[in-house]
Design the sequence.
């Protein structure tokens, strides 16, 4: 499995991705401590420069505050999650919202739409509004572009994301029940016009039943390559 462009993508299981680029580390949707499929050796880090958060659910956000404080990471998130983090003492956030793009640590980050829900469950069990869920398009210095869909159903405007941002690879949820399944992820890949997909948000728990094999069967004919990584595996 090869990217051969200096960027290394490691899937930490579920929707958590670690991306090494330009001597830096970016984390998407940090959930490692209680993530049942994240290998133990991937629960600690040498550095985390940037954290991207798609929404407030625990399986995407549980380790955000502690990791951001420990590594003094810049957290890119929506306005509501920014306020939540700031209230709890993390001051290095870059709040944004859908449609916007920012430069952070030499990377261009654009926030895109996603159809899902979003909230933060507090330690006492109460539920805090966390704004709307989102996806991201991430453009690295070498122009390589990733679309990380976050948790979402299939939506037709993924064609617009393809047209406006032209991503090279997409991280798409395939687990079903809470997100797209392989059939809708295959359609998403077609709408986005991507050449490659890394499937995520499957297999973590028994109810997330979608499999990469189902996706592979559906996209082979349209020339989309599926990189089905094992948790902890790196695509270089
Ligand atoms: Ni979610
Ligand atoms: Mn989720």
Sequence:
């Amino acid at each position: 499995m090869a990217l051969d462009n200096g960027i290394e993508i490691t899937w930490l299981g579920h929707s958590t991705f670690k991306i090494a680029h330009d001597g830096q580390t970016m984390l998407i949707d940090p959930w490692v401590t209680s993530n049942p499929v994240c290998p133990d050796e991937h629960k600690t880090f040498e550095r985390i420069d940037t954290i991207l958060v798609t929404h407030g659910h625990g399986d995407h956000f549980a380790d955000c505050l502690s990791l951001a404080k420990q590594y003094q990471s810049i957290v890119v998130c929506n306005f509501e999650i920014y306020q939540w983090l700031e209230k709890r003492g993390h001051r290095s956030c870059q709040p944004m919202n859908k449609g916007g793009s920012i430069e952070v640590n030499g990377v261009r980050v654009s926030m895109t739409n996603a159809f899902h829900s979003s909230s933060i469950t507090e330690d006492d069990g109460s539920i805090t509004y966390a704004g709307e869920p989102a996806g991201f398009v991430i453009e690295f210095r070498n122009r390589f572009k990733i679309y990380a869909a976050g948790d979402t159903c299939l939506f037709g405007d993924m064609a617009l994301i393809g047209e406006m941002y032209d991503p090279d690879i997409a991280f798409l949820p395939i687990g079903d029940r809470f997100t797209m399944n392989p059939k809708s992820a295959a359609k998403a890949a077609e709408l986005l016009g991507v050449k490659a997909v890394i499937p995520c948000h499957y297999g973590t728990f028994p109810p997330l039943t979608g499999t990469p094999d189902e996706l592979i069967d559906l996209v082979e004919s349209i020339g989309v390559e599926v990189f089905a990584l094992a948790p902890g595996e790196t695509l270089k």
Q: What stands out?
A: The longest strand covers residues 107-113.
